[in-house]
Amino acid sequence: MADGAASLLNLAEIDGRGRALVAAQPLRGGQIVLRDSPVLLYSALPLTKPPPPSSSSSSSSATCYCDHCFRILPPSPSPPAAPCPACGRHAFCGPGCLAAAAATSHTPWVCQALSRLVASRLLDGQPVERHVQARFLIAACNLATVSPSNFQLLLSLQGREAHADDTVSAARFLHSLLASVCPPLPPGSPFPQGFSLELIVALLSKDKLNAFGLMEPVSSRGGGEVDGERSVRAYGIYPRASFFNHDCLPNACRFDYVDSASDGNADIIVRMIHDVPQGREICLSYFPVNLNYANRQRRLMEDYGFACDCDRCKVEANWSDDENEHDDIGKDDDGDGEGMDEDADEQMSGSEMGIAEEKETDFPHAYFFVRYMCNRKNCGGTLAPLPPSSDDAPSDIMECNVCGQLRREDEEAEADGEEDMDE
Ligand SMILES: C[S@@+](CC[C@H](N)C(=O)[O-])C[C@H]1O[C@@H](n2cnc3c(N)ncnc32)[C@H](O)[C@@H]1O
């Protein structure tokens, strides 16, 4: 299944859940079960200049990224390390990324398509989501030419059969937009006439269900508080990670290290949060775990088309409105189009939520929040142990998948005044 983890996960078909990844052997907390590289990576920034940031918003909105690997570029006034010689608009972190982009993500066709789209001003006034969808479709069209096998992988991902009206109307707009501005595809393209409307609908639906967001770096506000205004820098399609189903109390979580200098910086790494036996389904949470029941159900239905009946939802479905409202701490206001990633909304930790103190009797999953949720304000991240050492000894260092903070497991428990609890 994964580099160096081929025997850890099996792909299975589960009634009512579609394809799923299941533990092929007992798995340990911290164990890396998947490292996946994107078949498609595209910027989350609007194509034309966004409105100026409000005075209260994070300075990180001015951050620029390499248009190929999405590492941070040095801040202005430094000149971009390697601008595209044709358009000058796109910048790359060095000659290596410039050359790789020219052959893959920023081919002459992509360069011309994006330049014409910007010059046409047809996206002006459209929501950012439409800009990002246009970027995705141009990247997908290019993928069909430069890597037909990866395009087939994209097509093999799940989409929704019954398309929401807004997807269809977005697809109509984007279909005529791309038909009017994109240059002819290079010889050998399987879509010499461009994408049909039906294909655009299908691709947008696959993107919505399967794209992972690579977030802007975390910045701190002081007092250990995380700046909650972090947004997405790029979206990626990860063909194997797309098989993870959702659980509101996940047993694995994903990490990325986009700004690391090493190769594969845009890879997603999935690590076990705790031990699980062979045969257990391995699930991620598609959003921060501290959203309340109503918001989770609404989001899963609207964005992913299913009603969750995980153990946590079964318990919380019986809570009164007051009890559920109490935990409505992630201001989940929709419209972020983030897919399977962290929200930038305000978040609180499990102990701040008062779960451990107030709900222990009627909330058997309280241990999860105490033990596996980051306690930095506004972070909303999930903690997983570092990978076991080479002699298979488990690590007691927990890493947050959002803010990256490392702490010893017992520090976490002591900070919350809780006993270390076993499942
Ligand atoms: C990213 S895909 C996951 C892989 C997918 N099951 C497949 O067959 O390719 C997301 C979709 O999987 C299904 N899914 C994920 N988690 C689920 C769950 N807990 N219960 C039911 N369906 C789920 C939903 O159809 C959702 O839109």
UniProtKB/TrEMBL annotation:
Pfam family, one: SET
Biased amino acid composition, Acidic residues: 321-346
Region (Disordered): 321-349
Domain SET: 7-287
Superkingdom as given in the UniProt entry: Eukaryota
PANTHER family cross-referenced by the UniProt entry: HISTONE-LYSINE N-METHYLTRANSFERASE ASHR2 (PTHR47420:SF3)
Name recorded for this polypeptide: SET domain-containing protein
